[in-house]
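S.,

Sequence below, as promised.
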Amino acid sequence: MTWLNRSLRVLATSALLIALVSVSHAQAPLRIESSATTVAGHTSASDSARIIDDRSRGYNYLLEDSDRRYPARWCPGEIFFYVDNTLLAESDLDPNRELQRWVDVFDAWSRASGNAYHFSYRGEQKLVIDSNGEPEINSIQPRSIGITYVHGTKDVGAADYYAKAVRGRTAGNAGLQVFSSDGPDETALVGDRGFILIDIDDAENLGANVLRKSLYQHESGHALGLGHVEDQDALMNGTLSRDRRYISDSDAAGLRKLATAPCTRD
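The prediction came back faster than expected:
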C-alpha cells in the first residue's frame, strides 16, 4: 500500500453470518492496509451526541473517525459496479438472473439516496487472485464496486476464489475503501473502492427472491458505507429476516445523510 498526499487508505468491512432460519452477523474489525497508523483523536461531546442520535434514528455507518465530522462515504454521482461470474459456471445460479438482482439492488439504493447516486453496470470483470486463491480487493477499479462469488472453504476443492472472510457460517462480506487524508473534512474518508464477496454455496441455499436478494441488498449497503443497526425494521439490522426484505425509511435516511455530506475527490 502506498501513501498519496499523506493519505492513508483504510478498508472497513462487515460480514454476514447465516443461522438456521434467520441470518445474523457481527461487525468485523477495521483493517488498516498499511504499516503506518493514524493518530487517535478525541471525540467531542457534540460528536458523541451525533453518533448516538444517528443510531437512535435507525441508521449507523461502517466507519467514523472522531477527528472527522463526516463518516466514510461516496461522493454523489456515478458509481460503477461489475461482477466476477467465474464460479457461476459450476453452480445452479443463473448469471442473467443474478445480474438482474444486482441491478435491482442498486436501483433501490439509488432511489433511497434521492438519486444522489447513480449506478452503472460495467460488465463482467475478473478480480486478480492472489497466491492463496483469494481475490485481491485492490484489483477493483477506482470509483467502482466489485462483486464476486467465492467459496468459504477449500474443502470443496476451490483452488481459486476462496475467501477466509466468508468461511464457516458467513454468507457475505462487504466493505468500503476510503482515503483518510489530513485535508479538510470534505476530502477525508472519501470512497475509492467498494467490494462485495458472496459465499456461492450459501447463496444457492437461500431463496432467490427472498433471503438471497435481501443478502445482496444488505451487503451492498455496507459497500456504500452503511453499518449495522439495532432498529428492528431496518434492512441493515444485525439479523437478516424475511420480515426485513426491503430498504426501510431509516436505511434510506442514513444513506441520504451520507449522500448530502460535503464530499470532494482529489
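The chain has one domain: 8-260.

Coffee later?
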